[in-house]
Amino acid sequence: MLKGRAFKFGDNISTDHIVPGRLAHLRSNLPELARHVLEDADPEFACKVKPGDFVVGGSNFGLGSSREHAPLVIKMAGVSAVLAKSVARIFFRNAINRGLPVLICDTDSINDGDELEVDMSGGTIKNMTSGRTITFKPIPDFMLSILNEGGIMPYIKKHGDFKL
Amino acid sequence: MQVGSTLAEKILSARSGSVRKAGDIAIAAVDLAFVQDTTGPLAVRAFREAGFCELANPEKTVLFLDHAAPSPSWQLSNDHMSMRSFARETGCVLSDVGEGVCHQVVAERLARPGDVIVGADSHTVTAGGLGAFATGMGSSDIAVAFALGKTWFRVPESILITLAGKFCKGVYAKDLILYLIGRIGADGATYKALEFGGSGIAGMPVTDRLTVANMAVEAGAKVGLFPSDELTYQYLKAVGREADYKPLAADSDAEYLERIEIDLSALEPMVSKPHTVDNTVTASQLEGVKVDQVVIGTCTNGRLQDMEIAAAILKGRRRHPQTRLIVGPASPLVLREAIRKGYIDTLIAAGAIILPPGCGPCLGLHQGALGDDEICLSTANRNFKGRMGNPRGHIYLASTATAAASAVAGKITDPREVL
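Output (structure tokens, whole complex):
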């Protein structure tokens, strides 16, 4: 069970909101880069987020660049999962590759500051603040097999290849 | 009865060695894998941490130093050093600072119709203009492709965009793709392939197709695919690679998720307003918006045709005194040809700053970061908040002709007024 507070963002949160290009010089210094996570969407986020918390977006979360640093710094901030109505393709793949769950669900009923409990195997998100429970779309099987190993690198180390 | 295949299904079936249809998982051989300087260091790190030592295909593995070229900071210079050292150790290909934007160099020298190309850059989709299944991924995925020479895909459903007619004067491929993204939305093709067809593509040279394919990702698409035809042959011949040509088309009975028809002759010059690419209106609706900086170049519009269009509009004219004009040819080949044909001289006479081949100010690293509340009109592909170095800047996207006309007027201008 994942438990934490929801940090609510709007639609179209791009990889430039998460790790802007102007900080490209920090990409080989990940701890420093992580201090700026989501800076252009909420400058206070990096200070407020605690281990276990959730990033909750609207539609098309993570659109834009292929920069894997985006899900990586969200994970480094301690975020246990990203919840969104829909997610951009490359961000989705990168997040799973880094062992960060991305859960597709109707996030309209979640407000900033709500306390959530996510049951990964049951596919449900319980909003402890509102009392409502919502479901999330199952992660596709092949991606779940990568996520369950902790990401693509642990997956490849274990299997040596892609296993269908 | 088995139905025919889309271009995406055809290529992924051929490169995975078994018939694959939309929704299937394909493990496909990779014909070209590359990274650039802002994603490469993480790929190198992932490759080494996984314990990999050897590349599956060193000659088909390329490291491009183009995003920070030349480097504006010691940190990025150190990243360049680590990538050069990886290239020496593994024997892969290095495209160093000044040797061009990855997607332009891939188009000129590497991509072949029917190839599977993966790059740690979202605009890898550009090579779809040559009929390659080319898509962007993250650093870890590319590190795996470097080592294993293959990757996995979920075969995408395809949306067929049928083009008819010809562009009117002053309307270009950039206007088509901005119009399409405005129509279907920034997530209108998420996880899907955009496939282009119809009689209209017969009048659309590869340089135009590259511009359209380049921005497929701005509608969320995995690929933007054009068939390979006579115009593909002409392009490959012009860059000395006619042996790489092969014809490629979708089957006539292929199944599409959706079909969209566009009459090219009905299109107008388009502009995307801040801060999303699908926020499009016609250029004429924005007439009078003051512009502080104009950028012509990038992987979207940094080709010879763009230099030609810009020079034709700027010949005998000069940029507005309050508007900076930055021009970045996307490769040394483009730059040298543009010099030889006199375009660069015309542009400099018009007050342009000429950048070395590279990504320039597009992603906010250097060479034209915006000040607070400044407005930039750019031929690039993204106008996200913070994209050009400042979350308080405002970016509008348009064709090269609209950009050049606006540089003269100092405000957003429909290029048909000056052509």
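The radius of gyration of chain A is 15 Å.
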